Amino acid sequence: MERNFHSAEELTAALRAGEATSAELTDEAIARIEREDKALNAICVPDFDRARTAAQEADRARARGEDRPLLGIPVTVKECYNLAGLPTTWGMPQHRDFIPAEDAVQVSRLKSAGAVILGKTNVPLGLQGLQSSNPVYGTTNNPWDHDRTPGGSSGGSSAALAAGFGALSIGSDIGGSLRTPAHFCGVYGHKPSLGLVANRGMVPPNELPLPHELDLAVVGPMARTARDLALLLDVMAGPDPLTSGVAHDLALPPARHEQLSEFRVLILDDHPFIPTGAAVRAGVHRVADALADAGARVERHSPLLPDLTEAATLYTQLLFSGSVARFPVDAYEQLQTRAAELSADDESLDAARLRGMVLTHRDWLGVHHRRELHRHGWRQFFAEFDAVVCPVTPTPAFPHDHNPDLLACRIDIDGVEYPFFDQLVWAGVATMPGLPATAMPAGFSPEGLPVGVQVIGPMFEDRTPLRLAELLEGRIGGFPAPK
């Protein structure tokens, strides 16, 4: 395998041993992007001149005896992060010319760690949806099948990693936006515990990059190995220096166990709201078998598991509650009228979406209280288990579908169509209570498409799912480079 597909850990070892320079690695990455990205469109904003300058400085720093965590490692950044001197558009044409004056806090941390930023990766319009296509930069294709999506909203990052365009990337996740692209492209992504990683500067164009706590969304690492995920999380994690960082230092607990045989894992492959496709179910079973073969305690049912039906409803309401904040008054009033017409017996996710859009603050507090009850249930669950393994979405990567009305879109699961947004329920298992979740490869579909699973761990014990993913990588294989 060519050096563009080596892990950040392997590249760092080569740099330390004098077997490579950052300038060489950066030139190799740029050459590959220039050769291969025309077919993928993953790198929407290249920054090659500054990358070469940063690589030369990294080599000089290493010659002076410096050895920072990512010194000289080529990486990419999701387009929605502010990077001084490059446009931040979120794919919205009206912001095509917006250039932020300062870096997002995570871009600053990458630079402080010595990373060489190759450029920015593509996203959906406004970061909405599970695909990566917008009017400013066009459509990103899946490296395994160009007729399919790499996922979204961090789809440009996952495609870049799968194609060998840099060893690491950073993305964000509220509806599986890290995990789904990782699953679709055969790479790794980690949704950190809510509040673990500062998000300032991952903000819509023209908005002041204020430090604020998001209700569901997180920013996090993407990589081609689980160990690289952990390496990048260590760079990213920690409070914002403008807020909690004034008084708090980070001290993540170690992984609960170091051997597969010591883990206690619940396997989930069914959800009450949507079926699991055969290819994804096979991937979950593949991981379950690897755990059992290694001597882990594997269960498929537990009365301690918080109710998945209520969890999906709460997640849907919370997710959509902020989606209409800037709607015109007349449009919002129309939603209120439609919500009032819903039958009290309608417990579908479509109804939950509509009710979520018009939640009053009083109602939102009620939903939030029910979320806290779920968090209490998860604490009890994780007193008996170490992790949950479950799908990321019900299917592998699906064909491009750029219908702008996402509520009208459908997802095909083994020949039967379901509402497009219903597939988000698997992302919500971890997102609603704020739990950490690591997406990892788990084999291939019969059509040769990557299939992943997510490993969900206890709140603020991010090293536990990361370690479990690392150990499983050795059992079922890790990142497979597309041909």
How would you sum up this structure in a few lines?
The protein is of the alpha/beta class.
Fold and architecture overview:
Helix content is 35%, strand content 14%. The chain has 483 residues and is α/β, with parallel strands linked by helices. Helix 2 runs antiparallel to helix 3 (48-63), helix 9 (308-321) crosses helix 13 (425-431) and helix 10 packs across helix 11 (349-357).
How many DSSP H or I helices?
A: 14
Largest sheet: 11 strands, mixed
**Do you know the CATH topology of the largest domain?**
Amidase signature (AS) enzymes
What shape does the CA trace take? globular
The CATH architecture of the largest domain: Alpha-Beta Complex
Residue windows where pLDDT falls under 50 for at least 5 positions: none
The structural domain count equals: 2
Instruction: Average the pLDDT over all residues and give the rounded result.
Output: 96
Radius of gyration: 21 Å
Number of strands: 15
Cα(first) to Cα(last) distance is 11 Å
Task: Tell me roughly what share of residues is in helical segments.
Answer: 25-40%
Summing up helix and strand content along with how strands pair, one would put the structural category as: alpha/beta
Taken as a percent bin, the fraction of beta residues is 5-15%
CATH class of the largest domain: Alpha Beta
What's the helix-strand series?
Answer: HHEHEHEEEHEHEEHEHEHHHHEEEHEEH
Spatial ordering of strands, largest sheet: 1-3-2-6-8-7-14-15-11-9-10
- What is the name of the CATH superfamily of the largest domain? Amidase signature (AS) domain
